[in-house]
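This part of the workshop introduces the protein records we will be handling. Each record describes a single protein and holds just a pair of labelled lines. Instead of coordinates, the fold is spelled out as a row of discrete tokens. To make this concrete, we reproduce a full record directly below:
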Amino acid sequence: MFHRLKTQQINNNLYTVRTIIVNFYVYNTGKELIVFDAGISEGMAKSGFDKLNLDYNKVSYVFLTHSDMDHVGGLGIFKNAKIFLSKAEEPMITGKIAKKANRYNKPIPNCNFLEDGEVMNIDNTSIKLVVTPGHTAGSAMYIINENTVITGDTISLSKDGTIGSFGSFQNMNNEQNIDTVDKLKKEKFFDKISLIATAHHGMLKK
């Protein structure tokens, strides 16, 4: 079932925060709070945590799907967290690759990098990074416990739940994004996932 998302609790472990046009996600392992992306601004990220009755000071890890402004704007409130990003996205935050023309993404201090396919285990919760280039050079998704995927801006979801590529004018390399999504479909990647959570196009529960 397809859902548009407001700030809310999704299931026992997963929450989402809406910041104007983009959602980010909070996962509670029972002992740790883990955040996936950080929304547009610190103020909106704080408001979302307050609405959910969660303490942003207790966030231990932040996993970024990519480095665009609307996904990293709230990072500053997570002062006690380790920040992770795909290694392929590193040139986007070091000024080596521009997002568009002469527009560069901002540096992310104290960022840690993960390789494609790398898995982290946090309090009996597995988090696997899958690099999905196209929207940015190192866009990525995160698979939680093999059944939930945080897609960032890799895919779009239509109202009937159809999975497509992301908006062409927003992608750095639209053909690459289309190829990435086509490859995921051919591999039946999404068939193995019970909950698909996007940044801009809602959520699909199977």
